[in-house]
Amino acid sequence: MQFYFNWTISNQKLLEENDNRLTIKIQEHADRVFKDLESMSSTFEDSVLSSFNKARSELFITKMQLSIQENDIQMAKFYEERAGLSSFASSNNSEVLTESTRVIYNSSLSLYNQKRYSDVIYFLNKAIGYLSNGSNS
User: Fold this and answer.
1) Which residues contact 98 (CB under 8 A, 6 or more apart)?
2) Are the C-beta atoms of residues 41 and 52 closer than 8 Å to each other?
3) Higher per-residue confidence, 34 vs 61
């Protein structure tokens, strides 16, 4: 029984390491593809560009959220800035803006539970700024 238990733990660790390596490779590939798309975005038609910008913002807000979960606040702030939400605030695109500020708010709650109050204030001020048409972004 002990052999089986040790073998199971050993294989589980190996699978987790493989999953982590695969995740990193997928992320690197996705980043390269996204960078290529971003460089071509000036040639997109307006409707495609609008969809691309929405997807771009959603991607960076998701990366912000993940960075907060990993306690990498500097990267979270970087991704929040890269999301470019102020352009949605000025164009009154409420769908993207509402969803993104909801994610920022929920991420702030996570920071609050960790007693990272200055970071909570930073992100909530950003969300409030976006909701008030980008006046504080």
Assistant:
1) none
2) yes
3) 61
- Nearest Cα to Cα of residue 38 among 66, 63, 23, 57: 57
Which DSSP string corresponds to 40-55? HGGGS-HHHHHHHHHH
pTM given for the model: 0.74
Rounded distance between C-alpha atoms, residue 79 and residue 87, angstroms: 15
Going by C-beta distance under 8 Å and a sequence separation of 6 or more, which residues neighbour residue 59?
A: 34
Per 3-state DSSP, the chain is made up of helix, strand and coil in percentages (nearest 5) of: 85, 0, 15
Q: What is the pLDDT of residues 9-30, one digit of tens each?
A: 666 777 777 777 887 888 888 8
CA 104 to mean position of chain CA atoms? 10
Q: Which residues contact 34 (CB under 8 A, 6 or more apart)?
A: 56, 59
pLDDT of residue 133: 67
Structure tokens at 34: 């996204």
> Which residues, 6+ apart, have CB-to-CB distance to 104 below 8 Å?
61, 64, 80, 123, 124, 126, 127
Mean pLDDT of 72-85: 93
